[in-house]
Amino acid sequence: MKELTEEQKQIVEKEIRKEIKKTKTFFMQDEIDKSVFQILELINNEVKNKTEIKVEKFNNLEEVIESIPSEVFKYMGIKEIKQFLSIDNIQYFQDSFYINLFGKEKIIVHGVLYLFEKYPLIFNNCIFDNEKDIPITLKQIQKLSFLNCIFRQKINLNFQECLDVFQMDNCVFEKQCKIQGTFKDKVYFDNSHFYNYVDFSKCEFEKTASFYEVKFEKIPNFSQVIFKGNLNVVNTNLNFDFKNLEKKINQEYDFYEKARVEYEKARVEKETGILYPEKSLDKFANDFRDSFRIFKNALIKDNNLLDASNFHKCELYCKEIELKQSWNKLKNVTTDEDIKQNNRNHSQLVDFLLLGFYRKLCDHHTDLLRVFNNLILLIALYALFVFGFTWLHDDKLKDTKAILTLFGFFDKFKFYFNIGVAVCMSFGLILLLYKIDKNFIKSFKIFQCLPYIKKWLLKVFKKEIFIKLFSRLKIIILDLCHLMESLVIALLIPCVFYILFAIFGLFLNLDKDFKYLLFVNSLFVSTYICLVYTKSLFLGRYVVLILSYVVFFIMLISQPSIIHPLIGKIMGDFDKNLSYPSLLILNILYTILMALVLFSLQKTARKNSIVPS
Q: Does 402 have pLDDT greater than 50?
């Protein structure tokens, strides 16, 4: 076939008009007529050009007609994209429209949304800068790729289905990003950087979803996401700590409440429907927990147990934050149902405390060094308590008619001991009130003088010197306050037991030594728990742990039987001092804590693949 005849041109023109009509273009009739003529010329020139080099592309009219849909799709696609984006650098290859602006021009996002449903698009080195966030729900989008693109403003992409590959590789998202829909083919977000919040909630990935080396500056939302294919999160910074996670959940809750209150005012004025239902903080924590649970299950399905354990850790962080809200759910009891509800809330409070303890003990079986440090701390603390017992039972004291038992020592100084208990109770109650109400401590006049003291110091010292000095002192004092807070709580717990015994001990006909026994043993447990749970990083952890290691190695070299009484029996070097009745309960409590820590140690080692499963 060398050239189209006039009759063939009319047939081809008619077919071109049919195809253009199917595209549902927004162009007016005059522009459509021009497009028909230009497409016809392109087809005719293609026939002639091919015949000149003696390679016939079309053997007959039927082959020409078969090529019309692709030619119309290519021509009208380029024409509509140029019209929407006001750019000329558009190419068509491999059944996709390729747009490369080399980062020099900006594209308004809402001019692009219409094109997403209609054409397979590849954007490279483009800058998207929309000034308004208008969520538009699309039915189906074609192949969509963003390579090395920058999104300056919010992105809200909501669609029912993406029929082909979806890519956002090496992209930068400066503001919030929300993507919702079902991906029928592979999805790639490799090497992208999300500087703000990103929301993938309710998405469905039917094939591979890759987040290789993605950087999330804020915690992403993957609540109710379904991963049917493989999940790649290699080198993705999704390993958040507890503080960042709690801060993010609180921010999301505050943002939602602010929007809900504002909309509620507008709803009352305009009498419109409810868009923002009330949602408690624990519900937000549950949404984030669902995100980490989904990642965990997807990685377990791929047999990636090591990375799955990190997401399980974040899942437990969210559960702890969720259970923390049980304090706010306690009701005034008026019915039997209220009693049952309060019992459930109290049970959740216990679970909250246990999760917090395990987070501090071993970071939910993911931090081997931390749990080993806590094991050394337990051994050192036990050794110090044992030495306190044995020193007061030392036979050398008999010659001076000194106290032969620890309880006799306490009883001799009962008055001072009671004063100490009262002081500890006072500080402990003040601390508890401060924890409940942060403004409580400000009612004391001594704390009202702090701003005046700061102003006086600014006058005495140079501003630069004072700022440096004050910032360093602030860190040290804050760390010391955290340690003192932990020690006060550690003393408060045995003091409470001591006072309870003083009240009920007479009615239960218990020996007076029982209250001292209860005090000392509860002090051992509370001190260990508070040192594990302390917020003091330098004094409470580093300094205490260094001293613990020193005590541990001294015991290991000089008296290894002190590490545990069973070791002494096995080695035949049992210390008789450990058989005192006063130490019996302490040994039992120490054994329980030791079993708990050793269990966490071996489980953490297995989860970190140090010990084979």
A: no
Distance CA 404, CA 390 (A): 10
The b/e string for 489-510 (b: 16+ C-beta within 10 A; e otherwise) is bbbbbbbbbbeebeeebeeeee
Whole-angstrom CA distances from 301 to 157, 187, 201, 330 are 29, 18, 20, 39
User: What 3-state class would DSSP assign to 597?
Assistant: helix
3-state secondary structure 14-80: HHHHHHHHHHCCCCCHHHHHHHHHHHHHHHHHHHHHHHHCCCCCCCCHHHHHHHHHHHHHHHHHHHH
Strands 209-210 and 231-232: parallel
- Alpha carbon of 70 to those of 2, 19, 93, 347, 489: distances in Å? 21, 9, 12, 66, 77
Rounded to 5 degrees, what are φ and ψ at 158? Answer: -125, 120
CA atoms within 13 A on the CB side of 526: 19
**Token pair for residue 33?**
């007529």
Residue with the two structure tokens 């405390």: 353
Q: What is the pLDDT of residue 401?
A: 39
Q: Is 362 exposed, middle or buried (0-12, 13-18, 19+ CB in 10 A)?
A: buried
Question: If you ran DSSP here, which 8-state letter would residue 226 be given?
Answer: E
Tokens of 161: 């289905």
314: Cβ contacts below 8 Å, ≥ 6 apart: 238, 239, 240, 245, 292
CB 431 within 8 A of CB 483: no
User: Which tokens go with 480?
Assistant: 């010391």
What DSSP string runs through 276-288?
A: S----HHHHHHHH
Lowest average pLDDT, out of 8-12, 395-399, 438-442, 459-463, goes to: 395-399
Residue 441 pLDDT exceeds 90: no
Taking the alpha carbons of 88, 91, 97, 100 in that order, is the dihedral positive or negative?
negative
Query: CA-CA distance, 159 to 205, in Å (whole number)?
Result: 13
Phi, psi of 106 (to 5 degrees): -110, 150
Share of the chain above pLDDT 70, in %: 73
Domain ranges of the chain: 6-85, 90-238, 251-359, 368-607
CB 135 within 8 A of CB 155: no
- Give the least confident one: 24-28, 45-49, 120-124, 485-489: 45-49
In tens, the pLDDT along 565-586 reads: 676 666 655 555 555 666 788 8
Residue 398 has pLDDT above 50, yes or no: no
Chain mean pLDDT for the chain: 78
Cα(418)–Cα(307) distance, integer angstroms: 52
First to last CA, the chain: 72
* Three-state DSSP class for residue 157: strand
